[in-house]
Batch of 2 targets.
Target 1
Amino acid sequence: MAESLTFQALASSDHVLSSAENYILYILLEAIAGAAGADAGNGKGRLPLNLSVVVDRSGSMYDERRLEFVVEAVKFLADNVAPEDKVSVIAFADRAKLIIEPEQIHDRSAVRRALDDIDLLEIGGGTQMALGMQAAIEQVNRNHSPQRLNRVLVLTDGQTYQESACLDLATQYREAMSFSTMGVGVEFNEKLLMRIAQESNGKYHFIGEPSEIPSIFEDELQGLRAVTIRNGRMEVTLSQGVQVREAFRASPEIYALGTPLVDERKVTFQIGDLEAGVPGSVLLTLVLPPRKPGPVRISRNVLYYEVPGVGERSTTCDVTVEYTLDRTLTSKRNGRVMNLVDQVSIAKLQAKAEEELKAGNVDRATRLLSNAIQGTERLGNVKATQALSGLMDQIKQTQTLQTKAAKTTLLQAQAVVRKTQMLDPEALKELQKPD
C-alpha cells in the first residue's frame, strides 16, 4: 500500500545564542499517520483485531452497578466485531477464568450467556490482576500476528495483589502487544494503571462514573479501528556535546519518558501504533554547548515504522540551528513547540502539587496548582482550568486527598491535564511573538 505519513522535527527556535554558556533548546518530534487505503492489510482498510478483555469480577464490582455496565460494554463489543476479529474475555478475582474464547465472540447467544452468568463464576472475591493479564496474554498469543492489532484491555476498580507482577507482564510482552487500562471509581492504583499503559504504548482511561464504561469501550474500539501505522519508534542521534535533560511524550497524552539512555549519542523512543490523524510526538529538552556563530546540525532523527502488509519503513529529518550573537533572532519562538512546552509544564506542576499534598505541604500544593491554573488560562484550555480549580477547591476544603470527592477530583484533573490540547490559532500567534 502507499502509506501516508508525515514526520517532522521542530526546534523551539531556529537561532541559538552564541555565548560562553550552555543553551536550552526544545525539540518536538512528531509523526502523523494518514488514513489507510482500501488495500491496507486485510483489504478492507483496517487491521483485524486480536483483543483480550480482562474484567475485574471482585466483590466491589457489584457496587454502583459497575459489573452491569461492563457486561453492557462487552455486549456492544461483540455486536461490533468484524468476521476476521479475534476477541476473548477473561474474568478474574482470586483466580482467572476464560469465559469467552476468541472464536466465540461471533456467536452472540454464547456471548450473552457467558456474560449473564459472570456472577456465578467460582473465582473468589479478591483482586489478582496479574492472573487475569497472564490469561489474556495466552489468548492473544494464540492468534498473534503482525497483520493484527494485538492488545490486552484491563478493567478494574480496586487495588491488586502483586502489583509488580502486573507491570512486569506489560514490560515483558510490550514488543508483542500493547495494554490499555481502565480504572473505575477511586479505589484503584492509578499510578500502576498509568505505568502499565505507558510502558506498553497502550491507553489509560479514568472512569469516574460506571455509566461511562460502555462509551469508553466504544472509544477504545474506534481508536483500534483507526490504526494505520504499527510499532513506531524514533531514533535520535545527537551532535557532539548535545545532552538530553528531559524527554516527555507530548501527544496524544503527556507523560514523562524517564531518564533517556543515551548510547553512543543515540537515544530511542517507542511511540507504538499510530491512529490516523492523531499526532504521536515526543518533546525533548536539550542542552547545547557553547559554539561560535554559524549553522550547526543538532540532531539526526529517524522514524522507523511498520506498514501493514508491506513491512518496516523509515523516514529521516534533521534539526539544524544557527548560532548567532543577535538576541533579537534568538527571541523568536516556534508557537507549536512552545505551546506543547507549556502543556508539559502544566502537567508537571499538577504532578508536583499532588506529591506536595501527599507529603502534607498543603500551602505549597495550592501555590503549584495556582501556577498551573494561570498556565491553562493563558492557553485557553477551559476544561483543564475547571478541573484544576475544582481540585484546588477540594484541597482547601479537606486539606487531604483521602476523601472520595477529593480523590475523584484529582483523577479527573489528571485525565484532563494529561490529554494534549489541540492548538488554538490565537494562542499560537501569541506564543510566536518575540520575548
Target 2
Amino acid sequence: MKISSIVLVLSAATFVATVAQASTGQPFYGDAPDAHHPWCVHDWNRPQPPVVAPQPLKDAKPPAGAVVLFDGTEASVNNWEADKQGHEATKWILKDGVFQCVPKSGYVRTKEQFGDCQLHVEWASPTPPEGESQGRGNSGIFLMGQVEIQVLNNYENPTYADGFACAMYAVSPPLANALRAPGDWQQIDITFRRPIYKDGKCTDPGFITVYENGILVQDRVQLEGPTGHMKRPEPRDLGETAPLKLQDHGNPVKYRNIWIQPLPPRTAADVAKTVPMTEEATAAKRKEIAAMVRDAAAKLPAGSLDQSLRLAESLVYEKDEATCKTVEAFAAKFVGDLKQVPADKIESKKDEAKRVYNAFKYLTKFKLVEPAQLSFAELEGIVKAHGWDKH
C-alpha cells in the first residue's frame, strides 16, 4: 500500500483542536519558547490532538522495489542488530510472528542504511495497558536513527501534545489521534526527506509526512534536526544514510510488517513547504498563550501558591510588567516567610520550596526574569542547604 494511494476521509472540521482535555505534562519542564516557537518543548498548555476514527485495517503489502525489514520470519530478524558499537545480535524476540521489544535490552537498528524513504510500520501496544502518559506502551521509530516518530498508547491516555503517538517528538504534535484500541495493530506510513546541505549550508531542511491508520497526522512538516527529550532540536546535516532504529523505552511493544522503499533524490521543486513560524506570528501566539494562562490563574485562590506559580508560568510566553510585579512580590514574601520557619518545621516546607525553586530556576535559566527580581539566590541557598535540590 503506497502512501500516495491512501484515501483520506476526514473533514477539515475534525482538525479543530480543543483544550478541553488537559495534558498530563508539567510546567517549567522542556526548553522555553523562542522567536519561532510559541510553545515550550513538551508544553502542557499545548492543545491535545482531537480524537478521530481510524480507517479500516488494510493488508499493506510492500510495493515493488521495497526492502522488507521484518515479515514475521527468523530470517527477517537478522536484518536487525543491537544499537551498540560493533554488530551484536539483538535481544528482541520473535514471538508468534511478531518482533517484540524486550525491556531494558536496548534499541535495535537495521544493518542496512537508508536516507530518503517511504516507510511502513505496524505496531501494537501491550495489553492489558499499564502505566499512564509516557509510561504506557512507549517506543519510537527513528528515521536515520535521529528523527523520532513517537510510538505510544494514547488510546484514552493523554500526555503532552508533542509526545503523542505519531508526533515528531518534541517538535510537532499529530493533527489527530487516530489510534485503535490497545492490542490492536496500528498502521503507520511515513514519507521522509532528509535535510540537504551543500558547502556546510542547508539548501533544503527536509520534511516528514505521516499517516496513522489511514489518517493524515503530519502534513509535510519541516525537520528541525535530531529530536530529543526536553530539548529543542538544532538543525544540522544528518548525513546521506543511516540505520533505521526502534526504541526500547521499557515496554514490550510489538512490531510487524516493516518495509522501506528508498526514494530517488529530489529536485529543487520539492523543497519543503512548511517552515517555522515567523517572528511576528510566534509573538502573537505567545501573547495568546500567556493570556490563556493568566485567565486560568485568575480562577485560582488569590495570592495562593498555585495562582502565583501559574502567573509565573505566563511569563514563559510573555513578559507582562504587572504580572512580573505580582510574581516578584510573591517571591519576596515566600522567601521571607521561609527564612522565618523554625528548624524543626522547615522540612514541612520542602515540597512548596521545591515547586517555587524549580519554577524560578526555569525562568532565570531562559533569562525570562532576572534572578535578583525573584530573590532567587536566597531561595537557592535555602534549597541547597537542605539538600532539596538532590531528590
